[in-house]
């Protein structure tokens, strides 16, 4: 049995972060703030916003680099990526999966094309999705580097202990697997826009209206450009407290 002392553990070694929100708010652009070398799997082919960034590579499947993922054959292409990515991971600090909601939609569309009527999904598709998704998720999350995942947002009804029912924002992943996805993730944040200033921020502490969590530092919210700056708020507060003393 291998044992590691808690004093030797680091919160920010090989972290897993999930950022969700409405389309167009900057989940993909947030990749620019990742320190180190980054490999992006763009599942919705929105990687054009990353053009010109020197420390970011995008996995593409056409010679001109215009297409990152085969949305017509998502099952085949995700398996190809998983099979081939281990050969280049030692060149990178971060792996980005952008975005899981798009992949989920493409998977069901592909299954629908292979159904009896060529359109609608059949009962077995809904039953097979949880195990399939979890296999993909665990394979990607077990890679030995930081993993940043994005998704669109959805809502769900939750019941409080006093019987009240709330509508809560959550990642737009089917409910059979969303708890596993968020449970295996160190940080789950919801990206929002301040209607008065237009500035973008991330909610990092959850409540009855927003699912969020942060087990990497003590921040409850941050600017979008500070998402990957772990522990800096705590260091600043400690310095300020020391100066006051």
Number of domains: 1
Helix content: 25-40%
How far apart are the termini?
A: 45 Å
Number of helices in the DSSP assignment:
5
The multimeric state of the shown protein is single chain
The CATH class: Alpha Beta
| Low-confidence blocks of residues | 234-245
Q: Biggest sheet: strands, sense, closure?
A: 10 strands, mixed
Beta-strand content bin: 15-25%
The general outline is globular
Q: Write down the Rg.
A: 19 Å
Q: Based on the structure given, which CATH architecture is correct? A: 3-Layer(aba) Sandwich
By helix and strand content, what is the structural category? alpha/beta
Note the run of SSEs as H and E.
EEEHEHHEEHEEEEH
Based on DSSP secondary structure assignment, what is the total number of beta strands?
10
Organism: Lactococcus lactis
InterPro entries: P-loop_NTPase, Phage_nucleotide-bp
Protein name: DNA-binding protein
Please tag this protein with its features.
245 residues; alpha/beta; Rossmann fold; ten-stranded mixed β-sheet; 5 helices; 10 strands; 23% strand; globular
């Amino acid at each position: 049995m291998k044992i590691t002392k808690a004093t030797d553990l680091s919160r920010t070694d090989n972290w897993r972060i999930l950022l969700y929100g409405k389309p167009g708010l900057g989940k993909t652009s947030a990749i620019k703030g990742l320190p180190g070398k980054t490999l992006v799997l763009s599942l919705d082919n929105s990687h054009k916003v990353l053009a010109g960034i020197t420390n970011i590579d995008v996995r593409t499947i056409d010679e001109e680099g215009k297409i990152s993922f085969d949305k017509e054959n998502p099952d085949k292409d995700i398996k190809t990526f998983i099979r081939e990515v281990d050969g280049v991971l030692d060149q990178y600090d971060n792996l980005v999966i952008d975005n899981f909601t798009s992949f989920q939609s493409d998977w069901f569309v592909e299954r629908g094309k292979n159904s009896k009527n060529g359109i609608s999904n059949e009962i077995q598709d809904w039953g097979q999705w949880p195990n399939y998704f979890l296999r993909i998720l665990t394979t990607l999350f077990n890679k030995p580097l930081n993993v940043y995942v994005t998704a669109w947002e959805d809502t769900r009804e939750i019941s409080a202990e006093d019987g009240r029912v709330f509508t809560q924002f959550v990642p737009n992943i089917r409910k059979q697997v969303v708890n596993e996805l968020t449970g295996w993730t160190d940080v789950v944040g919801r990206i929002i826009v301040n209607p008065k200033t237009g500035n973008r921020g991330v909610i990092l502490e959850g409540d009855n209206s927003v699912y969020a969590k942060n087990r990497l530092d003590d921040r409850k919210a941050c600017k979008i450009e500070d998402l990957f700056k772990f522990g800096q708020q705590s260091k600043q507060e400690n310095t300020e407290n020391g100066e006051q003393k």
